[in-house]
Here is the input.
Amino acid sequence: MAQKVIVQHPANGLTKNGYYGYSWTYLFFGWWVPLIRGELGVAALHLLFTICTLGFWQLIVSFLYNKQYMTRLLEKGYVLKDTEDTMSSARMKLGIAQV
Here is the structure.
């Protein structure tokens, strides 16, 4: 089950919800999830893979999508900005070191 963690970009103060863990949302809605989260290129790529694999792609990526999404956010400069327990759990699940 996916867990929510708040992330914030320190330069502009933009706050987003990040998720870690299994993505039921991706399992049921597939490429619509990155599209709604504003990742147009990722959504197009996932749509292509879903069509080519006749939907099997969604079964596999539902295990991976939230971690990939969080990794992309963190690479763009976002930082975890939630309660210490939530951030600790997110760091452990995502495999990132405490800064």
